[in-house]
């Protein structure tokens, strides 16, 4: 088993991207050329070793070994020119040095070509993210732009990958860009969907056709990474059931949410500003969904709420148990292992954010 340090090294995103491009390029390289070149080098070095050993009267086992070392170092450009003294040895040394220049130039060209190809492909969004436990944003619209800004200010930082079919990175710096089709499995794999923590799907336009593409995207994600949580923005409320059948975990109809919030604000002035402040990042209190600390299991909801206020300066809003959310539990409601809670707090502090599995 490999040491944990090596495993961590192989999981570095940059190295994983390099490995992706190396695998892609290796499939396009003329392997016969490089095999022939390597074979020619080995044959030439072996012949030069025997010839120089004979010309320099070094046919002993130790002499042949020293000559082989001289021949190899000459090919790579660091040989000792004083090792040979005969005219024939000089000629062989010159040929080895000339052959070595051609070999080094070929290898250098291959490395430079790989680096240039790597930089070009990465800049064009043709690479692979290499991240783990990240968020994949599928599609782009104004809501996605606001989401990127929100995530950049959130206390719980995570890597974000944008999968979108465009010529440039619409999300800007700080977001890894993968150019591709959100319904294409290969492009989803380049975005690292199989190792992502969640995927957020946005419609590219406010149309029913955009919703249909989002449904296809959810189905593609389910086929590649069924354990990844999928959150979808829908245009048409009538399509929510279709998203559910496609196994989307959460579906948000932004128009419906906005209309209901506006209606409540008309009845209760200032409510929209309060809700906006709670769900937005930056300064002030925000919404968090947390795991119930083990030492608080068994407490009544009143005692649990009091402990949250005293220990974490957090206010309890709701408790979730087995998929059912209780926004105002009865006073005899007791916390159990596996419960989670929605709280309002200025920061997470020592509280652990909830990590939901795919449902």
Please give a structural write-up.
The chain has 359 residues and is α/β, with parallel strands linked by helices. The chain has three domains: 17-123, Helix Hairpins, CATH 1.10.287; 135-257, Rossmann fold; 285-359, Regulator of K+ conductance, C-terminal domain (Alpha-Beta Plaits, 2-Layer Sandwich), CATH 3.30.70.1450. 48% of the residues lie in helices and 14% in strands. It has helices spanning 4-10, 13-26, 31-55, 61-75, 87-123, 142-153, 185-190, 208-224, 240-245, 254-267, 271-279, 301-312, and strands at residues 135-138, 160-164, 176-179, 198-201, 229-234, 250-253, 286-291, 315-321, 324-326, 340-345. The strands form two sheets. The protein has a six-stranded parallel β-sheet. The chain has a four-stranded antiparallel β-sheet with strand order 7-10-8-9. The model has no long low-confidence stretch (mean pLDDT 82).
Give a nutshell description of this structure.
The protein is α/β, with parallel strands linked by helices.
Number of helices: 12
Total count of domains: 3
Order of the strands making up the biggest sheet: 3-2-1-4-5-6
CATH superfamily of the largest domain: NAD(P)-binding Rossmann-like Domain
Strand content: 5-15%
* Annotated CATH topology of the largest domain: Rossmann fold
What is the rounded Rg? 31 Å
Provide the fold topology:
Layout: H1 4-10, H2 13-26, H3 31-55, H4 61-75, H5 87-123, E1 135-138, H6 142-153, E2 160-164, E3 176-179, H7 185-190, E4 198-201, H8 208-224, E5 229-234, H9 240-245, E6 250-253, H10 254-267, H11 271-279, E7 286-291, H12 301-312, E8 315-321, E9 324-326, E10 340-345
Parallel strand pairs: 1-2, 1-4, 2-3, 4-5, 5-6
Antiparallel strand pairs: 7-10, 8-9, 8-10
């Amino acid at each position: 088993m490999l040491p944990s340090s090596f495993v961590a090294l192989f999981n570095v995103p940059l190295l994983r991207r390099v490995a992706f491009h190396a695998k892609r390029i290796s499939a396009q390289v003329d392997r016969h050329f490089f095999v022939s070149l390597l074979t020619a080098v080995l044959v030439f070095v072996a012949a030069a070793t025997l010839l120089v050993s004979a010309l320099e009267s070094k046919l002993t086992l130790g002499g042949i070994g020293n000559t082989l070392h001289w021949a190899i170092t000459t090919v790579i450009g660091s040989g000792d020119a004083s090792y040979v003294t005969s005219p024939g040895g000089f000629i062989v040394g010159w040929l080895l040095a000339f052959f070595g220049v051609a070999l080094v130039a070929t290898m250098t060209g291959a490395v430079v070509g790989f680096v240039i190809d790597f930089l070009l492909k990465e800049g064009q969004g043709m690479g692979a993210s290499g991240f783990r436990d990240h968020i994949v944003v599928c599609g782009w619209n104004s809501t996605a732009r606001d989401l990127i800004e929100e995530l950049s200010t959130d206390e719980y930082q995570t890597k974000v990958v944008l999968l979108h079919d465009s010529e440039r990175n619409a999300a800007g710096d700080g977001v890894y860009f993968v150019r591709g089709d959100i319904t294409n499995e290969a492009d989803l794999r380049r975005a690292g969907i199989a190792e992502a923590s969640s995927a957020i799907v946005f419609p590219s336009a406010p149309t029913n056709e955009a919703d249909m593409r989002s449904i296809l995207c959810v189905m593609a994600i389910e086929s590649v990474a069924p354990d990844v949580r999928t959150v979808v923005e829908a245009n048409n409320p009538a399509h929510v059931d279709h998203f559910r059948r496609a196994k989307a975990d959460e579906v948000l109809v932004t128009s419906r949410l906005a209309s209901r919030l506006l209606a409540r604000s008309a009845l209760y002035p200032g409510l929209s500003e309060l809700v906006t402040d709670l769900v937005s990042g930056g300064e002030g209190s925000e919404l968090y969904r947390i795991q119930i600390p083990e030492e608080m299991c068994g407490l009544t909801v009143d005692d649990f709420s009091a402990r949250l206020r005293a220990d974490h300066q957090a206010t309890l809003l709701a408790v979730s148990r087995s998929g059912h959310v209780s926004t105002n539990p009865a006073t005899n409601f007791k916390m159990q292992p596996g419960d989670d809670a929605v709280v309002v707090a200025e920061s997470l502090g020592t509280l652990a954010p909830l990590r939901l599995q795919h449902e």
